[in-house]
Amino acid sequence: MILNSTHYNTEHKQIIADLVGRPFSLVQKLKMNGVGSKRMIIDEVSPNMQSMMNLVSDVNYGNIELRPKGILIRINKGLKNFTWIIPYYHLVIYKINGSSIHAQGKFVHFRANKTFRENKKFFDKLLDEKTKYDMQYAMPQDL
Asked: Which domain of life is it from (predicted)?
């Protein structure tokens, strides 16, 4: 689900909390060494997300925030902000010349540059959180 988060809206806050959980507490954020990525350059998006990108040749930026049951991808388009809400059970990540995040029939591809390389620890943390979430629902294996 994609929301226009340019202006504060209590309904959006509730929708986000229902889908991916409330933000981590300050203590949890400190234990995790932060829950947000640095901003990254968006190279490409799926055709159904083109309306969120700058029409001129400006650079598009985005960042990722971890939540207990998913992630939020925040995309900036000029003075507008969009938030893409992705629960972990929808999330698929491909590491091909950068990183490509797929979910709900959409994708965002982040460019492999200096800021992307600075986010390597963040992507490792993201994969760990997704694995922890998936293990809660893993089928028991017979021995």
From this structure: Bacteria
